[in-house]
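User: Okay, second chain of the day. Same drill as before: sequence in, structure tokens out.
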Amino acid sequence: MLRDGGVVGVFPEGTRGQGDFRTRFHHGAAYLALCTGAPVVPVVMLGVRAPGARSGELPVSGTVIDVVYGRTWQVPAEPWPRRRTRVRAVSAALQRHLQQTADDAEADTGRALPGPLPAGDKEIAVAARVEREERHD
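Assistant: Same drill. Structure tokens below.
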């Protein structure tokens, strides 16, 4: 799809979590970019989760949501085989870019990301499981 000019939406931090890419970041978006050379357009959405709300809670009707598009990020496509160390290096570069985009979005809008999820939230449990699995890679 990407090679044919299509668009794919990926949330490398998971679902609507705390919005801090430093604490949780999956490698899939970087892998897709590395496979296809497709540009990554960062999108930061502020207001989709109230501070202290669980990850599955929706914003109250009428809530203003800011959608901020960051600078496009791109890496040249690389042929097979793509080594895990290379994917992780590309992922780290994308992670830094997305975090900078989030920081810029907060500064530009005067709004803050919602912060940590409440204790016991399903996203915290999923993040802990993913972290354990990645340590065993």
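The chain is about 35% helix and 5% strand.

User: Thanks, on to the next one.
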